[in-house]
């Protein structure tokens, strides 16, 4: 079973699938710790649906959907952060508005394209085996971005636990809000091919939520989340190949299994669990 | 003489609401100033403006003779209200205290940071809490840890926002003892927002009464007069909430 999977890795499409899957899984799980601790899970959903609007526009314009979806989703991410900052509306309300708007636009755009279904379904439900060289380069690009911004981990974490203290210490908290939203938006668009727009929010959140259950320090949570993201993609792809089931959904099922194991461990061995 | 804090004609408007209106006062170094006023009187807004958290104001705020933006953050130790922190955040006490020293969230603590954090935790009587998750701390313990986080950077100015809210009387006494001990040793200036008139009387050298406008500022015995208190709080009923035991207001 394993040797068959390894044998399949000699194909280019499988290599691209594995590399893009691992990179997006690791990067998504890294940002996931901030999404979970800042209570931004719904932002992930909102931006995923914004990505759908962007992909649909790209398909309508008959161009590479990624090049349209990235700026489209970034603009939505910035607008959500900007309006949230300048109004008394709750974050969930602002996200909900853009969530619906992006979906509505996506549906309108798709309705204008004859024979749109195949491409649209690829993005909606994910199709890791159709990852193109462009998608692969995009996943390498988001990994490079994550590595470049790695030194900001400390100040992002500081502002996450105590925003006021971070502001008093002259950390550009609002700038970081925008930066983090944009990086998450780009990651979501790139990862859409891997797991699909409808599942991507879970893809970012579940590894971080699982690691939260067994970690008592944020650094440990970050390491564990990234490790879970990495392992779930490999196990998910392996299972998907052998069982002939959709890869994106399989990765999410593996992540959920990891979450359940962490939950049970944290209940059965509370002391040991918390000392992670 | 350079004042620890100079506030000249400060006005802060939050949306349509004038929260602080034309407030001026100067704080001498090594003072312990209690800021008092009814709910919505602008106490916390004033503190946040001093701290540099509010940019949209008119007037002037100078800390040690400099604009707050030019003051090194280590010169100021901020102790927020207990509720401001996210206690679900996975962190142990050492991490939180080290963040005060590093002005960032720590990953692995170096030996030096660990030593400094340990020593300040010992100082506030919380040495045993170093590896305790924040979510397990009581209100009083967390308040000590907040104090440690502010003290670890050896500040010249302490700003405290209702630090005793949510902690018991013993914890409150301990906190003031630690603060006053630090002040006696270092000559630091303390500015504290409080609802508690007794605290102001027992611990502060100076008191500032505010109700959007400045009502009075000076040595606490001169500032906290019956007349000023009535002017700040409107009528006597409000003073019951201040644990007033000081006489015939």
Number of helices of chain A: 14
Shape field of chain B: globular
Strand composition percent of chain B: 15-25%
The CATH topology assignment of the domain at 5-84 and 155-242 in chain B is Rossmann fold
Strand order of the largest sheet of chain B: 6-7-8-3-9-10
Identify the CATH architecture of the domain at 5-84 and 155-242 in chain B: 3-Layer(aba) Sandwich
Helix content of chain B: 25-40%
Total beta strand runs of chain A:
0
Biggest interface pair, residues each?
A-B, 26 and 29 residues
CATH 2nd-level architecture of chain A: Orthogonal Bundle
- Kindly report the average pLDDT value of chain B: 87
Principal-axis shape of chain A equals globular
Count the helices of chain B. How many? 8
Give a verbal description of the structure:
The complex is a heterodimer of chains A (276) and B (249). In chain A, 82% of the residues lie in helices and 0% in strands. By secondary structure, chain A is mainly alpha-helical. Chain A has one domain (2-274): ABC transporter involved in vitamin B12 uptake, BtuC (Orthogonal Bundle). The N and C termini of chain B lie far apart (36 Å). Chain B has a domain at 5-84 and 155-242: Rossmann fold (3-Layer(aba) Sandwich). Chain B is α/β, with parallel strands linked by helices and 249 residues long. Chain B has helices spanning 43-51, 93-102, 111-123, 139-151, 169-186, 197-203, 220-223, 226-233; strands at residues 5-14, 17-27, 32-36, 57-63, 66-67, 76-79, 157-161, 189-193, 206-211, 213-219. Chain B contains 8 helices and 10 strands. In chain B, β1 (5-14) and β2 form a beta hairpin. The chains are: A mainly alpha (276), B alpha/beta (249). Chain A binds chain B through residues 37, 153-158, 160-162, 164-165, 167-171, 212, 215-221, 274, and chain B through 51-53, 69, 73, 76, 78, 80, 84-86, 88-92, 95-96, 99-100, 102-108, 133, 149.
